[in-house]
Design brief:
10 helices; about 15% strand; globular; Rossmann fold; alpha/beta
Length: about 350
């Protein structure tokens, strides 16, 4: 029987699939658990896969009793803020309640290390820029509230059950596997960079810019985009922190640079050599002018540093993936173990 070290939930999703590649490269045996409600079967290039839900208590008990996991890395969550407002029940059920099912199964089976994919959405409207870990946490939508609920749950579980955790709050995840085998693929897509590149490739007619009159250098919103592989490096360092017995922590993950919407579009034009049609539209309610992370704590305590901080690098990797998506792809033939 193989002794998997890590249970990777949501490993068929955007960040989870890149994390699987990083774990594979680090030589850490892992098992992917995903119900494929938001992920894709053909991105499961690494590790062994079980199709199932974190809400399935019997499945979790079976897995935790069968394999001696050292830790759980949790990416199995719905991510669309707008949908969370329209359908909060879906988000509270999966992102909060089902995560509790997972945590209780871990406690029952004496698994004490948990790396949580959290979000800058826990902070809500920024009171100061850049945002550090001490910033007030007042999320303004169900997506952010669910992330905050889990963070609070983990703090309580640490005191009561000696569960050790790391919350990683990242800002705008972007980019793709530099090898072009993995990338961002949401239906519908809501993130800026893939939308811009879909306009460049011809998969959509234009890109909409919501608000050009913000108090910023060029009038458009400024965001902190962080390469997905840098995010995964931080998760690996967080895992090492837990397995080394250094205790729990919460960390903001940002690029160290920030970019306006116009800068993203101009960089995409430069990288792709394509003309990108832009439609200027009114501001959207609730869009702050700037969202930028203070990531000094992660640099100090995790010894983490983003290596792919340039927007050109982020765009280049995402463009390679966008071009790959336009080609016919055959489904993976990797075996699925179902419970």
């Amino acid at each position: 029987m193989q002794n998997f070290k890590i249970l990777l939930t949501g490993g068929a999703g955007y960040i989870g699939s890149h994390m699987a590649k990083v774990l594979h490269g680090a030589g850490l045996p892992f098992l992917v658990l995903d119900d494929l409600s938001g992920g894709y079967r053909d991105v499961l290039l690494y590790g062994e896969f079980i199709q199932g839900s974190i809400a399935d208590e019997k499945l979790l008990d079976d897995l935790f009793s069968r394999y001696q996991f050292d830790a759980v890395m949790h990416f199995a969550a719905f991510i669309e803020v707008g949908e969370s407002v329209r359908n909060p029940a879906k988000y509270y059920r999966n992102n909060a309640m089902n995560t509790q099912v997972l945590l209780e199964a871990m406690i029952k089976n004496n698994i004490k290390n948990f790396v949580f994919s959290s979000s800058a959405a826990v902070f809500g409207e920024p009171e100061r820029i850049p945002i550090d870990e001490s910033h007030p946490k007042e999320p303004v939508n169900p997506y952010g509230r669910c992330k905050r609920i889990v963070e609070q749950m983990l703090s309580d579980y640490e005191k009561a059950y000696d569960m050790q955790y790391v919350n990683l709050r990242y800002f705008n995840a972007a980019g793709a596997d530099p090898d072009g085998k993995l990338g961002e693929r949401h239906e519908p897509e809501t993130h800026l960079i893939p939308l811009v590149l879909q306009a460049a490739s011809g998969r959509r007619e234009s890109i909409s810019v919501f608000g050009t009159d913000y108090n910023t250098s060029d009038g458009t919103c400024i965001r902190d985009f962080i390469h997905v592989m840098d995010l995964c490096d931080a998760h690996l360092l967080a895992l090492d922190r837990l397995l080394s017995g250094k205790g729990s922590g919460s960390y903001n993950l940002g690029n160290g640079n920030s970019f306006s919407v116009r800068q993203v579009i101009e960089t995409a034009r430069h990288v792709t050599g394509k003309d990108i049609k832009v439609l200027e539209k009114p501001r959207r309610p609730g869009d702050p002018a700037q969202l930028v992370a203070d990531s000094r704590l992660a640099r100090q305590e995790l010894n983490w540093s983003p290596l792919r901080a340039e927007m050109e690098k982020i765009i280049e990797d995402t463009w390679r993936w966008e071009c790959f998506l336009s080609k016919t792809r055959q489904p993976s033939e990797r075996p699925v173990r179902s419970y």
